[in-house]
Amino acid sequence: MSTVNQSKKFFSTMTLTLMAVAIVINMVLGQIASILKLPIFLDSIGTVLVGILAGPWAGGLTGLITNLLWGLISDPVSAAFAPVAAMIGIAAGLCAKFGLFKTWWKAIISGVIISVALAIIAVPIRLYMFGGLTGSGSDFITAYFLALGRDLFGAVIIQVITSNLVDKVVTALISWGIIKALPNRFVSRFPGADKV
Amino acid sequence: MFEPHSLYITGKGTFYSLHPLTKLSGVLAVALLVFLGPGETEKIILIGLLIFLTAVWAGLLLPSIKTTIKLLLPLLIVLVVVQGFFYPQNTTILFSLGKYEYAWEGFLYALFVTARIGVILLASLLFLFSTKLSDFSRALTISGLSSGLVYLIVSPIYMLPDFADRIHRIRESQQSRGLDIEGNFLVRIKALFPLVAPLILGALVETESRALILETRAFNAIGKRSSLVEIYLSRRERVLQILLLTVALILSVIGIIERALFL
Question: Which one of A13, A69, A75 has the shortest CB-CB distance to B153?
């Protein structure tokens, strides 16, 4: 079977256009965070939405390509974190499968689960590729815990989870709100429709 | 054809006219070798020297070094400070600050980590600076990658300016309806959903028409399609691509075995 047919089997055209639009949403929402001067990234709402609507693999691919494209058009370093973005989509998709996006407080739980899941991928990348630091503002958290006597591994885990927790909970809540606001006719076209 | 925003710098020469996928193979080979290939510092210096020469050859030395420094300077500074004080193998103390001691080993480790990323960054910048996005997407299309995947990689880049514009419009219309976006933290948090929701809802609902447009243009049709802009991949370059990736893979396997044996 050719690759074209295979991809057709996995993702319908509608899922494909959803993923493309979600990638753009990921890329531009950071602008809104900076307009409002909020200390969050907002760069994975598209990924989480695809995870909910079209499943963990589609969500993972959306995150992966978002970061690779960032690498292509502005900052190659963000490509190194593409596996982290993929993990966000996979985790969101799995949470949705277990009904964890049905109510607002379940969405908060999903946000926490996503933060912990992404740390599993992000911590080794930070430790091995970047020596535990990335040159961003949140490095202060790492340095602070090192100064308190923690080892680098512990300090990086704390840093990754704390700097992502608020962002991912807000992301999960907004995604829940968006899904609730979408017309049923639209949501029912996707495989994840009965889980939300 | 509309050329989207990218890092491309106008220029010409042999390096510029290499097939995009040849340059991408080079970047992948460098990334593999830097992290998995045998050797430590001497390997980074050798690869760094090779890329430096390539940059001179491509005529992109100045912009690529400038951008690398701009992107890596913050990382270098934090690493030099933090690793100097807290690197576990620190023994040669250079100076102390209160109860914290700054050591030579940590300083060297900071330089090593930054150099490792710097080398890969330099290689990817040479690829990005010398390759038009439209050429890259054309090369992907004819490389046999599934058309769905190519669509996912290429279409967001073309949609990006339009979406950035929409954010601007949504902000202005919500503000004209009285949305406060400059108050205290709570006010700004409250403004988040009214700004984000219209953008996402609008974009999601139109995915249906995007899908219909693709279908009416035979997106899922089977068979080879002809193209307006042809990109030619010579036999020599095909061999070069395979060679780069095979050598990098073999050396990586050697490096992994070496580390497993001596750990």
Answer: A69
